[in-house]
């Protein structure tokens, strides 16, 4: 398959505009500037890989979708640059590097979707940073983890691994993906709505009798996803 790349001038102009938007108000150290440069390089690699993996007749469409997902990274980077917290800039750079590695190893037909999910995850707070980041996010993540643990522990011993794998594959994965997408879109009202929906769903699981926890989780988490 012929390799198709986005015109470098187009991609570079998008990245430069995003960088200059905050550079005018924030003086960064050389280390932080290098982190930003690393982000730009990894993003360029990701878009090239994603577009090249698409069928020839879908590459322009894929390029447009990939550029849309690029805005998620630009917005996330602009926020941390505006805060002046260079540790957060380095963290974004690290998370983009991990995302790029994952995308490069993803089957061709799934690269665009994994790009979207991975970039949304970069935009969302990291559970590792809880409880020092977004309070509502951390509280919801904690409830989801508690609900997950209780469902697994309520299952018969011989079924726990199977139940755990099924939950991670569907309701828990979907919860994380839905929450991350809300942050990726950057709509504060939507973020609050999604977090509230999953917080309520997790509360229902935690309150349920052990024998009912799995069924309650499947129903309430599906409803939270469907509503968002």
- Largest sheet geometry: none
- Strand fraction band? under 5%
User: What does the radius of gyration come to?
Assistant: 20 Å
Inertia-based shape: globular
Q: Which structural class do the helices and strands define?
A: mainly alpha
Total beta strands: 0
Number of domains: 2
The averaged pLDDT comes out at 89
Secondary-structure element string: HHHHHHHHHH
Number of helical elements: 10
The end-to-end distance, rounded to whole angstroms, is 38 Å
Report helical residue fraction.
over 70%
Quaternary state of the chains: single chain
Low-confidence stretches: 1-10, 21-25
Describe this protein with a few key phrases.
single chain; about 230 residues; mainly alpha; 2 domains; 10 helices; about 0% strand; globular; signal
Q: Would you give an account of this structure?
A:
The chain is mainly α and 228 residues long. The chain has helices spanning 8-23, 30-53, 59-83, 86-104, 111-123, 135-154, 160-169, 171-185, 188-207, 213-226. The protein folds into two domains: 30-123; 129-227. Residues 1-23 form the signal peptide. InterPro entries: Pollen_allergen/Os (IPR035506). Keywords: Signal.
Quickly describe the structure.
Residues 1-23 form the signal peptide. The protein has helices spanning 8-23, 30-53, 59-83, 86-104, 111-123, 135-154, 160-169, 171-185, 188-207, 213-226.
């Amino acid at each position: 398959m012929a390799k198709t790349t986005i015109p470098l001038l187009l991609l570079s102009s998008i990245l430069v505009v995003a960088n200059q938007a905050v550079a005018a108000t924030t003086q960064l150290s050389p280390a932080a500037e290098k982190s930003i440069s690393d982000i730009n390089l990894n993003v360029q690699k990701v878009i090239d890989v994603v577009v090249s993996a698409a069928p020839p007749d879908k590459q322009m469409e894929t390029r447009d979708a990939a550029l849309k997902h690029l805005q998620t990274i630009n917005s996330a980077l602009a926020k941390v640059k505006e805060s002046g917290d260079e540790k957060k800039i380095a963290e974004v750079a690290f998370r983009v590097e991990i995302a790029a590695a994952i995308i490069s190893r993803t089957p061709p037909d799934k690269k665009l979707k994994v790009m979207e999910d991975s970039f949304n995850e970069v935009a969302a707070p990291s559970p590792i940073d809880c409880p020092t980041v977004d309070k509502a996010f951390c509280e919801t993540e904690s409830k989801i983890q508690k609900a997950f643990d209780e469902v697994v522990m309520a299952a018969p011993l011989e079924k726990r691994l199977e139940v755990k794998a099924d939950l991670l594959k569907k309701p828990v994965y979907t919860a994380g993906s839905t929450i991350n997408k809300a942050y990726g879109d950057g709509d504060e009202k939507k973020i609050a709505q999604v977090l509230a929906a999953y917080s309520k769903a997790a509360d229902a699981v935690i309150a349920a009798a052990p024998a009912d926890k799995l069924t309650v989780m499947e129903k309430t988490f599906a409803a939270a996803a469907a509503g968002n």
